[in-house]
User: What shape does this take?
Amino acid sequence: MADYNDLAELMFPDITKTVEDLENEYPARNLPEGAQVTRFAPSPTGFLHTGSLFTALVGYKYAKQSGGVYMFRLEDTDTKRTIAGSADDLIVQLANFGIVADEGYFPEGDKGAYGPYQQSKRRDIYRTVIKHLVQEGKAYADFCTPEDLEKIRAYQEANKILPGYYGEFARDRNLTPDEQIERIKAGMPYVVRYKSNGDHNRKVAFTDAIRGKIEIQENDVDVVILKGDGLPTYHFAHVVDDHFMRTTVVSRGEEWIPSTPIHLDLFRALGWKPTKYAHLPVIMKLDNGNKRKLSKRKDPEAAVSFFIESGYPARGLLVYLMNIANSNFEDWTMQSKDYDISHFQFTWNKMSLDGALFDIDKLAYFCREVLGKEHADTILPAATAWAKEYDEKLYSKIEKNPEYLARIINIDKDKPNPRKDFAKYSDIEPITRFFFDEDYVEIEKAGLPFNEKFDKEFINDFLKKAAEEMLYGVDEPTWFNSVKELAQKNGFATNNKEYKANPEAYKGNVADAAELIRIALTCSKNSPNLHEVIDILGKDRVVERLLTAVK
Ligand code: GLU
Assistant: This one.
């Protein structure tokens, strides 16, 4: 009579290592107290999803702030869904956000002592552990065909029984080693299943780092651990990988909560301590007042590439995602005006539970804040790289005269309240358009938004005088005094108090006067600091615009 050892040898004749060998090969990490080991474990199935960037950021942040290790593990065991090249794209995209793994899969080769970091290269590790489970009678060969499984499912459905391959419905769980050996030798295809001892009438509890205690039905399904193609399922690979990679916290999407009992069951069967879990909320959006998941199909913002193509700064998106991640983040930004998230202390318990809501206006707010802090020395190179790919017009303007654009971008930058009018690199070209004469002529043609209380003649006359009398090449207060004088001579009040006291006596206040000049020069009521605009345009172009603004 054959025993489990004979069965295991037949199934895995080439496996000579033991689980103990693996324990020695991947020893406990020698890290300082409190250091955390996290991982981002995507499947190479296409583009970088906004939710995946969120997951990667949280894992990265948590490991980094603790002085630990952040890994990138490629989960490529679902060969049907794998898209060639997408893994390397993910790495490149994450690197654009500064999220670079300490260990893991890299296009140029693995880095780290706990690899391989690509599941398809870990076959023998999984097979070693499965051989051990077979030897212990905790795993078995299952010869059910898809039709057999369908029959079981149909029976359960017809009889309103909980569906699944478990207990009495697990047809092959009680095959003896001899019976299994006979079938394998006869060449019958099989998968390997884990023989669960759970009971779905019982509950198992675990403490989720974000959600606290979760109580959930125990697993009793004999899950597949090794598929017919010789690769493991997610459930098994997760347990084995996170054990031997010595992960301390598994942060993953909340869609994995229902499967966690399977993972705890497997950890128990192997005699290993389960990792800590942090199940992250899914990113939602408001659609006609209803919350729903960001959808790959319906929402362009579900793909990170949307933000990149639209010109949002990578750092702004990260800051925004950190704001989704922790409810105290925005308060922190009020004190910590530099928006350097590496200084923020992320915590699991400040995470919202009911689905993080994606709000593009809030994203724009954070991007404006982030770019508001930067100067042309960092904005311009990033904008150039972006424009080269996505905005020909901006790119050619920068190429022609980078210094000119740098001066424009730096307007108001050193003021206590720096300008915050760029949310994305794509805002730069439209906002700075009036600085370019050809564009100015075009915009002017469409009509300038002068206040209707002034007639054309008056405006023309005032602007002519401004061209002659305004001072150029002087500091801001001196220049402004010259505008005030000009305003006064032309019937404007020089301060708002005077004007408010007796509005009938004046044409308007000095701000109205300055606005006429502003509109003539920039075609808009809202433009950056007028003194700096005048300085950058230079006297000749300013005079020309003032003299020709009114047609
Ligand atoms: N490959 C899994 C996924 O993409 C990873 C889940 C996990 O982090 O464990 O959903």
Remarks:
- The longest helix spans residues 50-65.
- The radius of gyration is 33 Å.
